[in-house]
Amino acid sequence: MEKKQLLLIPAFILLIVGMFAMSLLEQDNSPINVGNPIGYHSSVCKQVIRADGSVEPVECSSNVLYDTGKNLIRTYLGDTGGGTDEVDQIELGNASLAAGEPQADSSEAYTALSGCGMDAATGAYTALAQDGNWTIDYEFTSTCADVLTNVTHLTNTATAEFAGNSFTLVTLQNGDKLQLNWTIWPS
Prior knowledge:
Order of helices and strands: HEEHEEEEEEE
Strand order of the largest sheet: 4-3-7-8
Number of strands: 9
Number of helices: 2
Distance between the termini: 60 Å
Radius of gyration: 26 Å
């Protein structure tokens, strides 16, 4: 009887290891293409210097980004009243010339499309209900045949680049439409 019980222990361990292995196989571990996601990082440091000249150690910690702060980011970047600083210009990369994968330092080969209905355009700004969320949306209509694009940039009218995104190569024909919707939120 004891030998049968001893044989059950390895079988039980094997069963547990097998279930764990199967759960790992079923997980979707595909990478998410997010580049440099928007985030919020901070450091606030304080130091006390006493009247007698003694100095307490520096203490640093991160702060909390309030929902109202997220909304300030949304308002400033998304729609500041028609100046040249809001980030609402959507531009397409010319894949026939150069439209490389966006890099954080903006060093990729990139030539913006122009003409054929593909010039940079002011997108429609929408502040969403969630704190800090907003979208910039635009629909391009091609007026030429064989227009190739695979990259989009979000900029302001002063040509400061905010972000870039690559997508599957598209060949647009005369009358084809390309809808782009940027949804952005600070986390």
